[in-house]
Amino acid sequence: MVYRYLLFHKPYDAVCQFSPSDRPDQQTLKDYIDVPEVYPVGRLDRDSEGLLLLTNNGALQHRLCHPRFGHDRTYWVQVEREPTEAALQALRQGVQIQDYRTRPAKVQRLDDPQIPERDPPIRFRKTVPTAWLALTLQEGRNRQVRRMTAAVGHPTLRLIRAAIATHPDQPPLQLQGLAPGTWRDLTAIECRRLESLLR
Fold it and tell me: From the UniProt record, which GO molecular function terms apply (predicted)?
């Protein structure tokens, strides 16, 4: 079998499925990707944007999604107000959300990233400043990043997955260079790195 590996920049309001949605006007992966039999490795919510890896290699899909293997995923998160160092430290140590405590995360302040405007734009309020964070997790529960920032008092306004690490000592797969709604095949080097995970 010939394996395919694609990187896709999921735009806001598209859902991570190829099958038709309940809403007739809802965009799905099928509106952007015409490669048969590939499926997303993990998901992004409808209101999240950014990097999505797709493949037809089921074993690799499992390897990258299972939290036991600890692959970093980095998100750029625009939040309401400027977080204090105490709020950032709480995110780093792990926070209680719903019925579980998140694993420790890497968190740092981020200068405004060079990214396209969102359509529609985020809610803007003159009296409420915003800040960007780079947040790196090794787990990906449903709406986890949004729940984490809300737990420390800083609701998420915009959420973009920027990178997916496959090896701790090698460069991650990155969003850079992909416009919203576009995709590319992985390079031969990137494919070899991915497939080496299964050896």
Answer: catalytic activity, acting on RNA; pseudouridine synthase activity; RNA binding
pLDDT of residue 163: 95
Peptide bond just before 180 cis, omega within 30 deg: no
d(CA 143, CA 23): 21
Residue 15 CA to residue 23 CA, distance in Å, equals: 11
DSSP string, 37-100: T-EESS---TT-EEEEEEES-HHHHHHHH-GGG---EEEEEEEES---HHHHHHHHH--EETTE
Q: What is the pLDDT of residues 101-110, one digit of tens each?
A: 999 999 999 9
* CB within 8 Å of 69: residues ≥ 6 apart: 63
- b/e per residue, 17-38, with b = 16+ CB within 10 A? ebeeeeeeeebbbeebbeeeeb
**Domains of the chain by start residue, with CATH:** 5-67+166-196 (3.30.70.580), 72-163 (3.30.70.1560)
The catalytic site residues sit at 45
- Is residue 175 helix, strand or coil? coil
Question: Which residues 6+ apart lie within 8 Å of 113 measured at CB?
Answer: 76, 132, 160, 162
Give me 163's structure tokens. 């990178």
Q: Over 90: is that where the pLDDT of 132 sits?
A: yes
